[in-house]
Amino acid sequence: MPIASLFALPGLALTAATLPGTLELAMLTLGGLLPARKVRPTGAPLRFCIVIPAHDEAPGITSCLQGIGQAAPGPHTVSVAVIADNCSDDTAERAQAAGARVLVRNDPERRGKGYALDFAFSILLLENHDVLVVVDADTRVEANFIAELAALFQDGADAAQTRYRVSNPEQSTRARLMHVAWLAFNVLRPRGREYWGWSVGILGSGFALHRRTLEAVPFDAGSIAEDLEYHIRLVQSGRRVRFCDATTVWSPMPATGAVASSQRARWEGGRFRMIREQVPPLMRQVAAGRWKLLEPLLELLLLPLAFHVILLLSALAVPWPPGQVLAACGLGMVGLHVAAALAVGGAGWRDWAALAGAPFYILWKLTLGKRLLASAGKQAAWVRTERSHGDDSA
Q1: Is the same domain home to 118 and 211?
Q2: Residues 152 and 249 in one domain
Q3: What distance in Å separates the CA atoms of residue 243 and residue 346, rounded to the nearest whole number?
């Protein structure tokens, strides 16, 4: 029996695992490179409420609030609510001193950002806010933040997500590589989805929801991947998140290996949990003719890029020619995707040079296996990421 025939089954399995992700990358790369459609807003001024979930965020909450205060509101009304969630420090007092309204929540049994947001929305929806915007407590917003979001909601958006980028790429090689990864995940891919008319996703900070959206789809997502969980429910309800490409929120990334490992394990473990829980029902719904759910399904089938590359390299190593050809094409698409992200994100030479460290970054991801499995479990607990307040520059 020829060697190729012996390896046909594992080659076919690896090809089946990587092909949906490669097709997703191709569509998002093409769409992300094409010119964005113009928005022509009309309508009355809007009432915004900026909602900031904060668990022991005393060192950075004042800076965050000052930045929001400097964002030009234009004709729109803006209020700010900080959720002091299970805090053991003086986050609430500092937020109040900075002029924010403070909502105190103490519930040690239900910990996490999703629970905090559900608590706040249940209060704020009883008031007269039109749009509720979620900003993390370590985040800096740009001066046009309110104006650009308002344009999308005046254009009829149900929900919106701004660019979300790393504020401290110069702090370490790992932070620089995260900056590059976020240019792909938080800039190029949402641009691509917006171009094709798909829902762009919720990235955790810098997203906004119209009150009619929250009234129809309550934010009761309690997993450690609450943003991904809630986004899937939005798409299932027939709504989509628009991309606000003209403004950005900035957050620092952990500079040390231990903190970065904890954060990545929580994020990607939560994503693997969503893959396990959401892929089977999404496949059934797509098979039943709900084609708008195809892209969210493909998004879940596209693993985090480092793991997608590992699968492609595995397929390339299996001596089955059809799979090897497709794996080589897939690796080429990954390279094109990263290059397009750097181009669209206006990256500098240090960002391009950082790609030399990508193989080590992939190997580091492999060391997170045990933590990923723990975070992917249904009972995985939310753990706050230690903040890096050393540098908030862009």
Answers
A1: yes
A2: yes
A3: 18
